[in-house]
Protein 1
Amino acid sequence: MARWAERLAGIFPWPGRSTVKRPTGPESSNPMHPIEEIRVRLDADMQKLETLIADGPGAGPSEGDKALPKQFEDLKVKYTGKKGEISGLLRSMGTLAPEARPEFGKLVNELRDYADARFSALQAKIQEVEIAGSLSGSSLDATLPGYRVPAGSLHPMTQVREEIISFFQGLGFEMALAPEVDNDWYNFEALNIPPDHPSRDMHDTFYVDDKVVLRTHTSNVQVHYMETHRDQPIRIIAPGFVYRVDNDATHSPMFQQVECLVVDKDISFANLKGTLFLWAKHMFGTETTMRFRPSYFPFTEPSAEMDVSCYFCKGSGTLDGAGGAPGQPCRTCKTTGWIEIGGCGSVDPNVFGKVGWDPEKFSGFAFGFGIDRITMLKYGIPDISHLTRNDNRFLKQF
Ligand SMILES: [Zn+2]
């Protein structure tokens, strides 16, 4: 403090600002320098607030405690605000002799640092008081264990869908989407299903009007994508909801499919089988085998139904080796050892023609399966409605 006074003495006289007398000491007959005067008042104001804090929160937050933050802010603005007293000192520097200004500036900056440090320390104390006050003023017992927030989990179908998507993305497939309400052209005609085609009976379609349908399969993605990516190699995976007029234990009017399409030069049925084998082993275990049965779809030629060896009886048809009684039949595969999971085939040249691609140059394959069905198989769920009933007792198991 002595040094402070000495340095202040160096920039006296102050032109007629302060009339406050020093309270004590040998220089008490001199008026205080404005810098010192501000510091003395700041100390006194701080002291008042600190005394309030030291009283502490009583049984509950007192009126004094509640007013603390406001008083603190007012004080801070008064001294260190833009129009506060410390800034005021700097603004008045022009009235000093030029040679006194550098030292004066340094002293004001020191005062500002001093004030900032004290305000920071005080703010921390006030926050402590606030927290202590809010704890003691309520019935909260901070030592009690907290309420457990129930952690949700992804729906089993979402988990299976994500797993399928991530597997194919790993193989370089790109995700593609298309509208669920679509034109007849995308859902049927471009896929080689003209209006009077008998295969339309296979799709129990919801019609919005004569030309607009709720898509019956995700194959409409193929048409949209081929139209917008003409003559480029295609590797897409298209998950999404599809709709059919169908409702029983294994069918729901709204269900999820996932469909893949690969188009390039020299794509063969062997590529299709290789891709599907990889996927089946990933999804149902490395022992899984597959079989393809000749089938018919208007948009693929040749077409096949694909089956995987039963996940539960390991293809044996009985549950002997899978924890069942000797000879106990496997209900999941109806003792056949195989489970049908979807359809596939090479892209029909007519489809290429419809979307304006050259079937002589390009070939491809497509396959699709129901995510609901894969989920039921993977987890042994007997009734498809479990998947949409939103019963927590069921969903909590995943
Ligand atoms: Zn089985």
Note: The pocket of zinc ion is lined by residues 310, 312-313, 317, 330, 332-333, 337 (CB under 6 Å).
Protein 2
Amino acid sequence: MNSYIQTCFDFIFLKKKSNPVTGFEAKFKQFIPEGYEFSLPYQLFFKITSACNLRCKHCYYSGDSTAYSPHNDLRREELVHLAQYFVDEINITNVTLTGGEPFMQKGIYDILAIFAQNNLYINIITNATLIDKAAAQNLAALLNPKISIFSVSIDGVKKETHEKIRGNNSYDRAINGINNLIQAGFKVMLNFTVTSQNVEELPMLYDFCKRHEIKDLGLNRLEADKESPLQPDLECVIKNTALLIEKVNNDKEFHLKNTSLKTIDFLKNARGMELINSIKLDGLPADSSLRCHSHQRVEICADGRVYLCSAAETKDLCLGSLKENDFKTIWSTRYNNPLFKERKLENSVCKNCRYVPLCKAGCMARAYKKHKSINCSGHECKILDCGGCNG
Ligand SMILES: C[S@@+](CC[C@H](N)C(=O)[O-])C[C@H]1O[C@@H](n2cnc3c(N)ncnc32)[C@H](O)[C@@H]1O
Ligand code: SF4
Ligand code: SF4
């Protein structure tokens, strides 16, 4: 079935479970076949190992004592089998391989071969330090460069900045990895997580990318406590992102895929607030539009646990474990998961906030992790000076 039509079916199917549908949606409902079930995901985010050869200061996993240990990971042949299963039984079309460091997984070539033979869109997120010339050539023999991309993480334009975050001897190896991939004919996208250490280097990123023949850049938002010394100053991020955008705008071939800024950042900033206050905003959006819409993607962790996304990686939001059940069984119980419930902000301060149509109260998974409820704000919001939620 065409994925757009399926998305419409899913949307109305989910909505009609809790609300009567009206207007266009009611008309559309008649086309939903009898016995229709919410679709299987078509995007797989696959963490193929927990192991990593680096110990980056900002890394999500750095505070966890079991981090980077592959002891609980599925075995190599189980991961290869899963790759085949997701192609044959789930019909995924896109896959992102990540970790840990995906090139620490010896089975990566077997896994990639399965996805490549089936013409999947493949994105590999890597620190690139393990991609020598031979590895790049092996990858070139395996993958179609037109539908494969390497997202390489660089955390400083200058070597010392990058190594402050990613550790000694990480910069030259990453740059060599990038060069090897480019020489082998691959498209490389640069992944840059904005922190207090590198925020001043944002405007330099354009020249850095040009020097290395990179045409795609993504700025990542740091996920860390508010108090973390790595948190960048918001004013600095806005100022330096603006300088970067100025450079990028003159180059039609270059793509800034995302900034690290969200609506909530503009609301915390005087100039941003002025801008947003000049927009006419409607009232509270329909509950359904506050729902997380990333349900056509699924994340499989190296230990077999299944989540909707990385933000949902917590015990209560885990959909199940592939060590205990097969994927279709796990996916069929997803309506019990808090993230599949209708989101209601009635008891949250967000209800009376005029910015809710833009902000949408933030990420449901983050709201749940902080408040044990999706009916709260997913932000540490000071707009209403409330810490985000009174729910
Ligand atoms: C977890 S790493 C895994 C892949 C590979 N090891 C790498 O570094 O690219 C994926 C991406 O997440 C980013 N990342 C790690 N910890 C983060 C955090 N606390 N907040 C935001 N991004 C983070 C990394 O910089 C990297 O770009
Ligand atoms: S290389 Fe990636 S997984 Fe490893 S510590 Fe750094 S961010 Fe984390
Ligand atoms: S109060 Fe809620 S809706 Fe308003 S800005 Fe804060 S998080 Fe967003």
Note: The pocket of iron/sulfur cluster (ligand 3) is lined by residues 267, 349-350, 353, 355-356, 359, 361-362, 377, 379, 381, 383-384, 388 (CB under 6 Å).
Protein 3
Amino acid sequence: MDGSTLRRLVRPRPPQVAQRSVWALPEGMVPHMFAILPADWKVFSEWGWDRISAYADELLERELTPHSIDDWLTDWSRLARLIAETFTRLIIRTTTHTNDEAGQLRFQNYSEDVMPRARAFEQALKLKLLESGLHPEAFDIPLQRMRSDATIYREENLALHTERERLETEFSALTAARAFDWDGQPLNQAQVIAKLGLSDRETRERAWKALSECLAKQQAATDRIWVQLLDLRARMAGNAGFSDYRSFRWQELGRFYYTPDDCKAFHAAIQEEVIPAVLRLTEKRKRRLSIDHIRVWDDHWWVKPDPQGRPALEPFGTIGQLTSTIERVFSCVDPALALYYRTLNHESLLDLDARANKAQGGYMQELPASRRAFIFTTAVGSSLDVVTQLHESGHAFHVFEAARWPYHYQSMLEYMPVEFIECASMSMELLASPYLAADRGGFYAPPQLAQARSEHLTQILEFWPYMAVVDAFQHWVYENPDAARDTEQCDESWAALHRLFLPHLDWTGLEDTLRLCWRLQDHILVYPFYYVEYGMAQLGAVQLWANALEDSQKAVAAYRRALSLGNTASLPDLYRAAGVRFDFGRDTLARAVQLIERTIEELEGAY
Ligand SMILES: [Zn+2]
């Protein structure tokens, strides 16, 4: 790591929490063992728990006083960041080289030897801090979450967590086993879903039917896991003193600033404001494609073909073109963001191409000991790859901006509210969008830019109703736990919600596949209630984009300021700092929908 670059990138620490010094130690006491804890994650990564445990024990035993708290938090943060970075580097190693057997073995050993012990040690330190009654500077927000976690923590739930993980693994094995024979060519689920974006309608229909046939084959196994998971969740909630799982889960997810009723109000606002706009777009699509009925394979909520039947965009040919163009785009948004991106590129912290022996999908991982981020994608040259690059870069900028905080729980993304983390990444997709034009250094000539942007905005608009189906379905499930154990009733509820929120789709003759397809949405099975956050974050991002249209510099400055607060401000305050409202009422949504619809019209009208 280049120290001088780091100093230029991070802002000065707030002075009140930065004064860590050996002078705080009682006279005659030598500086403790943390002085010799490796600073370099590479050295540390060779350590097993046998070596780490002495440091963990020392932190657990050290006396906590108003004088010692800053040193203690600093040392805890150093150790926690080293452990987190080592583990993350192993995730990176195994996903970038799936055939690296030594890497897989190291990952497995670390997962089994270090991580469970590290998690137990983290939990013990959190309790020690809470019991001390001390309030470190700029630490109220992490303390709020720690306190909330501690109140629902139950020893008897540990065995149930293990059981839950076993069922989740069983479900993952089921989804991984979704294999398809496509004219003799073996395809996985992601490859079949990608076919829903092709221009040939028959191919799309075939892809949907292949997916639903596969879901039907797995239905009995999936439903058995589902009922077991429901029972397990109810028991965990009961053990923690909750009468229903949703209240328990709300606290587990750290949802302090909105209620189930707020989510339902959001669904209602989507019904009022978004559905009419989607219906208007659908009418245009039908006219342009000369079709009478929109079927699920014409407008799948994940992947869809171009509404005008135009060929797919090809914004870049090589990864070098992608990174150099993206860097130019960022330099138009804000030179500091371009510098962050360049740093990742120079330090080989971008692995972007699709190649053999590499995992699927995309992610950003934080490297907390190095104050860096790592971006993983499987880019093939599509317009979606450009959006993904902007999105994951938004997450990476969050890591850079929050790196100024001295303590791990102030700077780690994992402990921040998802409703804001995703707002940071989704905002970057929109803030950067004007600069994707070739004459501003970007990827597209004017007609292609119009196509790329209207594709992106349509996706944003159409996501909200689908999100509402997924969320409303789960509210129904946990409000009606007995009915939800009967998967036929789940099918009914899902189909009814689907027809309500996506009324433009014609399911005639496909009713059975509609009833099946809640099983395609992994979140429902393994990440309960974790979905509405994306809808909220998207609304925050559109508000931020609206601000940028008024005054781009001011909007980007607010964006960076909010990111740099790390985990030291509440969820509504993070939104406020970004210049937007944490609000998902009808008025806010109506303004967002109008802006999106008007922009799509302007873009399409121009070409
Ligand atoms: Zn994201």
Note: The radius of gyration is 25 Å.
